[in-house]
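Researcher: Good morning. I'm working through a list of sequences from a screen, and I'd like to move beyond sequence-only analysis. For each chain I'm collecting a predicted structure so we can compare shapes side by side. This is the next one on the list. No need for commentary yet; just the structure.
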Amino acid sequence: MEDENKKDESEEKKEENKDKSEDKSEEKSKEDSSDSPNKSPIERADEQIAEMKLLNAERKELLDREEKIEASKKLGGRTQAGQTQESKEETPKEYKDRVMANDLE
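Model: Good morning. Structure tokens for this chain:
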């Protein structure tokens, strides 16, 4: 139950952050479009670079969060990577009982 709640919360946070970043980029694009005729291409490029740096920083923060979540899953024993399954050998008596019960797989 806790795992599901944590997943739901993390997904909601990701969506909220995504919505916020989209809203910010939309606002900036509106500002840029209104000021575009007055600015030189170099100034517009500099603003776009600044915007990309901001968005990259937000993305880095989200990636760091995802890495922490994955690490906690691995350390918490919730993954099966690297684990071997022990197979139990069937004894002749168990085989006979299974065959006599007509329980063939």
